[in-house]
Write a structure and sequence with these properties.
Length: 602
């Protein structure tokens, strides 16, 4: 049998599994992340299922360890509550990447089985274990039953013949393999790697290689554990760890002989991890940013390599370098070894442990037109942001951050490249547009009577939408965090007016809290009083705001959705339904001047 066949045989009732067999595989460690974890829980709850063995069941919060997204924060809290009620261990936002924790904490051992809501759970091949990323229904089934069905894959053998060339990193190895096999030649296969120099591929390097099995389309890339690795897992688990090796007469679907001596320093072009070229082919390409981390290259060896290059140097002017260790223990080890200081002295941003660039909830994302060098495993369009992402080794990424362009450690310039002028903003002319506004000083419209005090800017326009800069997109989010009015944007019509209570717009300085109403075509806001910054923002945007004394509501017998008329100059206020009139406070002179010219910057 092959390695994966032996692991499956040891974890099922099928003692002689063959490719294509469907087998119920007992899972040693079953993990849900903050990404997908809430759905795992809902699947269990909705189907009245209980966790089969809490000692083998875990949450790992690694996608958004900063809790910077409301949806992630809600999912994490939901999972924490479920974990408390069911005595499930959580590796929370201070821990790091779940697959790395599973290895380092001994949740899974060589020869073991592991599933997670992480497509890179097959990283377990680095220690000679079975790992598989699965969807939330599969993980829920594993939690409830302790096993999942699995189709035994075909196994291919890759022989790396000859010695590894000097300066070739683990990332270079996997990028070379991707250039040979592409993203589908090994589709659905288990891959075993052998060769005279494979024994010298370190623990951390094996993690790098195995972590990109997914990008090759493979089920898993398996290494036979070394004696040193078996001793490590024996020490942390207190168990004897048998070495599982393929039989000498194991049946392989195919065997590939690859000349290891011809491997080069490689880089993956933006868009596809398998679009790999010699890094020399793209040298001197100017970059905007660089990222070192992810489950592929966030280990201590990766950080040491980066620190060796960055020590005593500075990140090139205008280039941003972000570094994210894979686990908190590695972060602390980097601190103890002085690596964090080297990174900070070089001008890098060092974040807490986690997935970072591969997930939207931590550092590592890039913007449109931004060119990034990354040690991540994927550079699909939009995966790490809206810019272009090259994949390379930590050494190449660190060297490129110092140079300001794509290069290698042995080819650093005496002085870094600097950015030239973009020309994008020179004598630019932007056509200004007003949304739902004219310069009338008397308006008529239906009124929303919202008698609530202290409506703050997060109720008006929540901070989760602050990246929106197009006013046309803002209206849909107006009041979506104000209880009782979360459907306001769907119901409001252009030309309507809002009347509300004291201290409207308290809180943040965000201009969107004004512009979202302009986007909807709301004509005016009338409040008892305003937050100081909100008042300035509205006046400067030529958005009509007025103040009133609350007794006027009774004077004109005002009700919600009445038609009203208001004069900005005189403050005359009329309920058109009963023709009753009163006075509110009209514009003051400076406000009227700004309003009439169309805004402070007009």
């Amino acid at each position: 049998m092959t390695i994966i066949e032996k692991i499956i045989a040891n974890h099922s009732n099928n003692k002689n599994p063959k490719p294509g067999d469907i087998v119920d595989v007992i899972i040693d460690a079953r993990v849900a992340r903050d990404f997908g974890g809430a759905n795992v829980v809902k699947n269990l709850v909705n189907n009245n299922l209980k966790v089969e063995d809490v000692t083998k069941t875990f949450f790992t919060f690694d996608c958004n360890p900063g809790g910077s997204d409301q949806n992630y924060a809600a999912n994490q809290h939901f999972c924490r509550q479920y974990a408390r009620d069911n005595d499930i261990k959580i590796y929370d936002v201070d821990s790091g990447i779940g697959t790395h924790l599973a290895i380092d904490k001994g949740l899974v051992l060589p020869g073991g089985t592991f599933v997670s809501t992480d497509s890179h759970a097959n990283i377990m091949g680095a220690i000679g274990a079975f790992g598989q990323g699965m969807g939330d229904q599969d993980i829920a089934a594993a939690w409830a039953n302790g096993s999942v069905w699995f189709k035994v894959p075909k196994t291919v053998k890759i022989n790396l013949n000859g010695k590894r060339p000097a300066g070739i990193s683990a990332k270079d190895i996997i990028l070379n393999l991707l250039s040979i096999f592409g993203s589908n030649k090994l589709l659905g296969c288990s891959v075993e790697i052998y060769g005279e120099d494979v024994e010298n591929i370190t623990f951390d390097e094996r993690i790098t290689i195995s972590s990109m099995a997914t990008e090759m389309g493979a089920i898993i890339i398996l290494f036979t554990p070394t004696d040193e690795m078996l001793d490590y897992f024996k020490a942390i688990s207190g168990k004897e760890i048998p070495r599982i090796i393929a039989d000498s007469d194991a049946e392989y679907f195919e065997t590939f002989n690859v000349d290891f001596t011809q491997f080069k320093n490689m880089i993956a072009n933006p868009g596809h991890p398998h679009d790999d070229v010699d890094i020399n082919d793209v040298k001197k390409t100017k970059i905007d940013s660089a990222f070192i981390g992810s489950c592929t290259n966030g280990r201590i060896d990766d950080l040491r390599i980066a620190a060796e290059i960055l020590k005593g140097k500075k990140v090139a002017p205008g280039v941003v370098l972000k570094i994210v260790p894979s686990t908190d223990e590695i972060w602390n080890q980097a601190l103890d070894e002085g690596l964090i200081k080297i990174f900070k002295d070089a001008g890098a941003l060092v974040s807490n442990a986690g997935c970072a660039g591969c997930a939207a909830g931590q550092v590592g994302q890039n913007g449109p037109e931004e060119i990034t060098m990354s040690t991540g495993n994927r550079n699909f369009a939009g995966k790490q942001g809206k810019g272009s992402v090259y994949l390379a080794s930590p050494a190449s990424v660190a060297a490129s951050a110092v140079a300001g362009y794509i290069t290698t450690p042995d080819d650093l310039p005496d002085a870094p490249a600097v950015f030239g002028k973009t020309g994008k903003f020179k004598d630019s002319v932007v056509e200004k547009k007003t949304v739902g506004q004219d310069k009338k000083t008397i308006i008529e419209g239906r009124i929303w009577l919202i008698e609530i005090d202290d409506i703050d800017t997060d109720m008006i326009f929540h901070n989760r939408y602050l990246t929106i800069t197009d006013i046309d997109e803002m209206g849909q989010y107006a009041f979506d965090n104000l209880e009782g009015y979360k459907d306001f944007a769907k119901k409001a019509k252009a030309g309507e007016i809002i009347m509300t209570g004291k201290n409207f717009g308290s809180g943040s300085s965000r201009q969107q809290a004004v512009d979202c109403f302009k986007s909807l075509g709301i004509q005016s806001i009338i409040a008892e009083s305003y937050g100081a910054i909100y008042e300035r923002n509205a006046i400067n945007a030529a958005f009509p705001i007025l103040t009133y004394d609350p007794k006027m509501i009774e004077e004109v017998e005002l009700k919600n959705m009445d038609e009203i008329r208001v004069n900005f100059e005189t403050g005359e206020f009329t309920n058109l339904g009963n023709n009753k009139t009163t006075k509110i406070n009209g514009f003051y002179d400076a406000q009227m001047d700004i309003y009439k010219k169309g805004g402070l910057l007009a």
